[in-house]
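Re-run requested by the PI after the first attempt was lost when the workstation crashed. Everything re-entered from the original request form. Ligand of interest: 4AD.
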Amino acid sequence: LERIVKVSDAFKAKPGERVRLRGWIYRTRSSGGVIFIILRDSTGVIQAAIKKQNVPQPDFENASRALIESSVTLEGIVREDKRAPGGREIEVKSFQVIQFSHPFPIGKDQSTEFLLDVRHLWLRSQKMTNVMKARSKIVRYLREFFDENGFWEVTPPIITKNECEGGATLFEFNYFGQRAFLSQSAQLYNEAFITALEKIFVLAPSFRAEKSRTLKHLTEYWHLEEEAAFYDNEDNMRLQEQLVSFACNKLAKNDSELLKLLNRDSKTLLEVKPPFPRLSYDQALEKLREEGVKIEWGEDFGAEHEKLLTKGLKKPLFVHTWPKKTKPFYMEVHPQKSEYVLNADLLAPDGHGEIIGGSQRIWEYDKLLQRLKEEGLNVKDYEWYLDLRKYGSVPHSGFGLGIERLVKWMLNLEHVRDAIPFPRVINRAYP
Ligand code: 4AD
Ligand code: MG
């Protein structure tokens, strides 16, 4: 008797077993009264041979008429066949078309822009399918890490009246006559959660009106943010290297087949283990200058600088203790060096860019108020945030990790938009 199976099961079934499969036509060709269809489902592809004498007349006619990407169901016997991809073939006994596909617009060697225009159809490509699977696994491992380490998952608002990461990248909109923004970061809210839950994390979209086109900027991205009471910047960095190593090692151990399909060798990911190398901002600056880079103290690093600093590294690199003037208002000032803050950026190897930004937070009322004023922010909008320093404030730290940036590095993708199904960049909000 037939049973409905996945393509991956058909490769494990006993030869001679009768199975039913559902999916989409990946390739089709006919030769000498046989139609060869490569059937695709979420688990892979398998060849199916439809011989005229083996199936009812209408089934054969439908099979010969069905174009690629038609949705179909078929039933047949699993056979071993060395000539077929993966060494297996289904000898088809019955074949039905669920929907005859229109001619599929995506062919070979299409331009990147065109593939972005038809992203809704390109998602089913082997490349995108594998990236989405890997991303799903990575997110699962990140959650697992927090879960195993006593962190609570919480949900911040996306509509907010506060800027967190500077006015230049704010998406502003009219909220029933009030000025409001799309969240740049859940951080300020995360700081409210910790008085109840102590250790929390959030996975939510963040928005940045990035006006530049780069390999690592999206206007909408998924942001994994952590906040913990009583953590200092040291604890914060240690947690980050544990989290990133956990995800890398899990993916390498559990999903090596998937990684192979993505041309990413698991060995490099297995080597990602704490501790990660560290440089202070000043040390990093010195290193850049030794390489002949002209850069002023207090300047942020560009893509080229990050590339130079991380060239050939096996693990991500922390750049810590940044000049206060390059960073947002909420970062705790260094107790001995008042021009610096207690923070760290985590840079992925080989120029993949910053994957995490984190810091210790200012936890005392007067200092926070002063910094808000220095930055010219409207104190009224931050009263609730200041309140957190009035009622049982404690030293605390946190960080934010860009999921797409992490996926880009872990899978060695060229562009951050390859790591997200429907990328939003300056010139694209469709499809
Ligand atoms: O360094 P950022 O701006 O830090 C914050 O938002 C903090 N408030 C986080 C916190 O402490 N809770 O952003 C954090 C990370 C970056 O390291 C990067 O990985 C990612 O978010 N990111 C982006 N990813 C894609 N596109 C963009 N435009 C991004 N901007 C930041
Ligand atoms: Mg940053």
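Saved to the shared folder this time. The longest helix spans residues 126-148.
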